[in-house]
Description:
The protein has helices at about 10-15, 30-35, 115-130, 150-155, 165-170, and strands at about 1-5, 10, 20-25, 45-50, 60-70, 80-90, 105-110, 115. It is α/β, with parallel strands linked by helices. It has one domain (about 1-130). The strands form two sheets. The chain has a six-stranded mixed beta sheet. A two-stranded antiparallel sheet has the order 2-8. The protein is elongated, with a radius of gyration of 27 Å.
Amino acid sequence: MAAALPEVLDAWRAVASRRRYEGVLPLSALPRLAGSLADTEGEVRYVLAFYRDESGTGCVEVEAAAALPLTCQRSLARFLLPVQVHQRLGLLAREADEAGLPPGFEPLLLPGGELRPLDVVEDELILALPVVPLDPAGGDGPEVVWSSESAAGAGAPVEARRNPFAALAKLKQ
């Protein structure tokens, strides 16, 4: 059964009762993510499912889907990047327990047992952001053509340029 997303929850109780939270959040509710976005228009659909895996480890499965408004670094135009996140997190009371996590699980350290579910969704979306946002559709950004002539001296004839080793060649003779 899905429930409304609380601000803070006891992760171990959520695991014991196999709680499931799903819903829709506006992007404006995610302030840390908002700093990387072109604007906060849009929403994110999320599902957080708490359970215990076959080895007895407390886990939360995070799913999030959004169309994130980013600024293309090639054309500086706004574009929507579709993002789908699916992550399994192993809940840990101590850092030393990380070695016992099953393969395919990322650690989530909860020393006090309290979890801010909104932060978990926001963290996963931040991790899904590209380092350099580029519109996959391609942009009509400025086209820059680099040539050896422009680097050598703005179209100066090759013969007219002075060779810095010419003096050494004279000494060799």
